[in-house]
Write a structure and sequence with these properties.
The structure holds two protein chains of two kinds. Chain A is of the alpha/beta class. Chain A folds into two domains: 5-78 and 151-230, 3-Layer(aba) Sandwich (Rossmann fold); 89-149, no CATH class. Chain A contains eight helices and ten strands. In chain A, the strands form two sheets. In chain A, strands 6-7-8-3-9-10 form a six-stranded mixed beta sheet, with helices on both faces. Chain A has a four-stranded antiparallel beta sheet with strand order 2-1-4-5, with helices on one face. The radius of gyration of chain A is 17 Å and the shape is globular. Chain B has helices at residues 9-27, 29-49, 59-85, 88-94, 99-129, 137-161, 168-195, 201-230, and strands at residues 50-51, 54-55. Chain B contains eight helices and two strands, in the order H-H-E-E-H-H-H-H-H-H. Helices cover 81% and strands 2% of the residues of chain B. Chain B has a two-stranded antiparallel sheet with strand order 1-2. By secondary structure, chain B is an all-alpha fold. Chain B is globular and about 60 Å long. Chain B has one domain. Classes of the chains: A alpha/beta, B mainly alpha.
């Protein structure tokens, strides 16, 4: 299956009596990068979890093109997630981690795909367990793991964490490539300066509600402050 | 875009089991701690239940299954703790694999670890308690296999469900033991029937049939409930 957009319609999510998301409605289309910003606990990761099909909304609907959210394998095969936890096995090497997930996603040419992912992550010389890597190296490995199967929908939760300047620049370049390849990219981040100029649109999550940040002039931080004041 | 084909049920089971075994081969953490615990358990009970070289009646059968159940709980907890540390269980749930196959892959990994523990603990119990555990090797092997499958089938499901629970280490035995009591009782009684001076083979076979019945029920229920139980 494939899709060209993801739409959230009145999506709410409660954890017990706590309402984390309240009637979220928005649409992202292929070739767009959308930044989700907001304070800790604002619900950014929950929203990404719902988009990833890992969480079900308490109410509302998520549509992937014409398909309504479910947990079917064909849909999951088109989604790539870089979580706050990195989804990598510390006992396995970078190549073993990537090969495992490549097989899990049914990729045929595993060796070639893994080798190019290792080169992009700058880890092709490392054959020691991933648990010995620095946070930045593990972050790069986790990003390659998330993009290994060339997903349509890319969900990135704090992707710039632990990256040095060079790796941050490389990730920004990678985001531009993903946009060029027609991916729908949702990025949850606190790093407004880094995502500024990369994201096509940004939205603020506050009190469980989604407040669009205008695409007008000024830096993302200025527009974020304005949206924060007005919401 | 790379051509993709979803892995089949068997491929998924093999992939997950092989990954678990590779990680265990690297760390040897679960097998060593589980084995150490099981051996310590047998040795401590041997000092309590063996007097002048003669063991209390049926003690060997009980101790063997207690050692398997306790060390099995330890193995289940540690196996899923690894999936929790980097939230890799979520990554597995996200992959386009059959989720019941994912469960079976984890189950097979736990079974192989427990088989390794039983391969050491069973002769140790035979030695320490002077129990003729190898007089009927096929029947004792089948009882151990069937009992371990029943115990691990429920344990794997619960350990996966509890992976994000804060008090998972306490909750796992609390949930697991009441449900697997019939399996442990059947294992103990079947083994005890084989250890009598005049082995009662029909009774041992009856308990074996009971274990196979439990296995069918538990594995079926676990396959049926794994996916909904894992979805938040």
């Amino acid at each position: 299956m494939d899709f060209q957009s993801i739409s959230f319609t009145d999506v709410s999510r409660h954890f017990g009596r706590r309402r984390v998301l309240n009637k979220i409605t928005f649409t992202c289309t292929a070739g767009e990068i959308v930044a989700l910003v907001g304070a800790n606990g604002a619900g950014k990761s929950t929203l990404l979890g719902i988009a990833a099909t890992l969480l079900t909304p308490s109410s509302g609907r998520v549509q992937y093109g014409d398909a309504v959210s479910g947990s079917d394998a064909a849909l999951r095969a088109r989604i790539g997630v870089l979580g706050h936890d990195l989804f990598i096995y510390p006992e396995l090497s970078a190549a073993e981690n990537l090969a495992f997930f490549a097989r899990a996603y049914g990729i045929r040419d595993v060796e070639r795909v893994v080798q190019s992912a290792l080169e992009r992550a700058g880890l092709d010389e490392r054959d020691d367990p991933a648990g010995r890597f620095s946070r930045g190296m593990r972050q790069r490995l986790a990003l390659e793991r998330a993009l290994l199967h060339e997903p349509r929908l890319v969900l990135l939760d704090e992707p710039f964490t632990g990256l040095d300047d060079a790796a941050t620049a490389a990730l920004r370049g990678r985001l531009f490539d993903l946009r060029g390849a027609g991916c729908i990219v949702l990025v949850a981040t606190h790093d407004l300066e880094t995502i500024d100029g990369v994201a096509d649109h940004a939205a603020l999550l506050r009190g469980g509600r989604l407040v669009p940040i205008d695409d007008g002039p000024g830096s993302l931080r200025e527009r974020y402050r304005r949206a924060n004041r007005e919401s | 875009m790379s051509p993709e084909r979803r892995p089949s049920f068997v491929q998924t089971v093999w992939l997950v089991t092989r990954k678990d075994l590779l990680i265990e081969f690297r760390s040897r953490e679960v097998v060593y701690t589980t084995l150490f615990f099981a051996v310590a358990c047998v040795l401590v009970f041997a000092f309590g239940f063996v007097r002048e070289g003669i063991a209390v009646d049926d003690a060997a059968a009980g101790i063997l299954w207690i050692a398997i159940a306790f060390s099995g709980t330890l193995a289940l907890g540690r196996t899923f703790e690894r999936e929790r540390q980097n939230d890799t269980l979520r990554a597995l749930m996200l992959a386009p694999m059959d989720r019941p196959a994912l469960y079976v892959g984890k189950l097979v990994g736990v079974l192989l670890l427990l088989a390794a523990v039983e391969a050491i603990v069973t002769p140790l119990v035979a030695l320490m308690f002077g129990a003729p555990l190898f007089a009927h090797p096929v029947l004792i092997g089948l009882l151990l296999a069937a009992g371990t499958v029943g115990f691990a089938a429920v344990g794997t499901l619960f350990a996966a469900m509890l992976v994000r629970a804060r008090s998972r280490d306490v909750l796992l035995p609390i949930l697991l033991y009441p449900i697997t009591i019939p399996v442990i009782i059947a294992g103990v009684r079947g083994t005890a029937a084989l250890l009598q001076a005049d082995a009662d083979l029909p009774i041992a076979r009856m308990w074996l049939s009971m274990l196979v019945f439990f296995d069918i029920v538990f594995v079926t229920l676990a396959l049926w409930t794994f996916e909904p139980a894992m979805t938040e």
